[in-house]
Amino acid sequence: MKNAQRRTAYRTTAPLGLGLGLLLAACSTTPPTPTTPLAPAVGTSLRQCDTLASQFRFDQATIDSAAPVAAGGLMLAGQPVAAHCLVKGQMHKRKGSDGRDYAIAFEMRLPQAWNGRFYHQGNGGLDGAVRPAEGALGGGPTTGALVQGFAVISSDAGHTGAQTAVFGLEPQARLDYGYQAVAKLTPMAKSLIASAYGKGPDRSYIGGCSNGGRHAMVAASRLGDQYDGYLIGAPGYRLPNAALAQLWGAQRWTPLATPGATVKHPLNPNANIPDLGSALTAPERQTVAQAILGRCDALDGLKDGLVQATQACQAAFDVARDVPTCAGARNGSCLTPAQKTTLAQVMAGGKATNGQSIYSAFPYDAGIAGSNWATWKFINSVALDPLSVGTIFTAPPAAPADIASANIDVLLPAISATSATYPESGLALMSPPGNGNPSNLAPLRARGAKMVLYHGVSDAIFSAEDTRQWFERLNKAQGGKASDFARYFPVPGMNHCSGGPTADQFDLLGPLVKWVEQGVAPQAVTASARGAGNAGGVNAELPAEWAANRSRPLCAYPSVATYNGSGPIESASSFSCR
Fold first, then answer.
1. The pTM is what?
2. Is 278 a catalytic residue?
3. Is 210 a catalytic residue?
């Protein structure tokens, strides 16, 4: 796609109802009328812990252990976690059709002093591991749901790491990974909470980033009566399309890479993969980032190294025109015409031979200089995505796709295909019903439940533009009133879930709870940079000229964080969402 065509696509995908209606609300001096809240949660104290292993009963569930954890026995983002009960167990233990043993393994952490709320932690990647049930919130490390007093569950979604390479071949394991594990765990977790505290949760929330965000988005469609709040980060709700776009992009970067150059495989230290990063080096990506800043940085009223006006930037920036062209050899300060063409094609999301789009376009943003951007485009596209496409997302499954020989024209329809053994396609398993057409969320809205979405604008694997367009479709399906129960917060400069030249430390769970239980809709949420001395970990990619504690408001789309014209430029208080 030519750049001019691509810019036109960005300008025309936003329905007038959302763009105008939300913008007027954002510019108004009168806050939006709060929606009728659900009753707030009421906390209580833990009644039992050790005895849960022998006394708790739930169909298809086994508690393997239950033991108290003293205050400070777990640390999160430099903070000691209060005393709680750690419960480990399994659901639906079975012998798979492949002869392997499967189960949905989980852990729950139940605070001694409970706030009356349940948080289902969706994990990332291909799952396969029970990550600590800390209630991770996405973005840079910050307080989790557990620290805030929630009872939290985490699971492996029905398979172990040892089965990651093959679980897609086992039909039920596919279903559990797609959406059934969350559906099976939810009533069990609520029952376990009732056994531990003498009452079930007053309010329930589910959240995560990447695949965890996908879990939350799918739950909103499939389990709209089970959760009151959905925290949806960088949702890979079209995960098969995104993975296929990675293969397509890798094929186009390969001719530009240094012949014979390799790097270590991220999961197998004894193996090497082609060094696709040599096709667009770190200095060259920094050159592109500076060109984007040169064209777009001031669109929000201040040149500060962040592009807040994302949509305006897509109309303003042209990679062919704005990035210097190499007159001679590559030296990091320019791109060759072939590099420019390939970058524009990859950022447009890729196309099959017949012109069919493979995936959404990606926004141009200064976070393209981030190391995580390169990891996804140049390493994971070779090391991880071929496995996912071949064994999990196609029906029937095949061997892991080979980058050189992968036929995108064959694989694209295969992710939507079904068979007698796999009656649901890979795309249907991974996506909300309707494959991204959110027309079935009216009951969720009517019940008073709320959704908060966020996405790094420089996410290299799941496109922030894909999430934005999903939100536009939601607004259309809700008659222009999506903001009554859903808000989307793009994070300028942020890569996949965190990192990049950005302010990526933020908590959107607190505002979501306040919206659900007090009726106060979030319009601006403060995000901070993780500079020197940050307790949650330092972001090494922050520009040297930024203050270590720089803060910015994350603004509900389509409003933009705009400089007020005065005030300290490192402080969120000097910006307004408008």
1. 0.93
2. no
3. yes
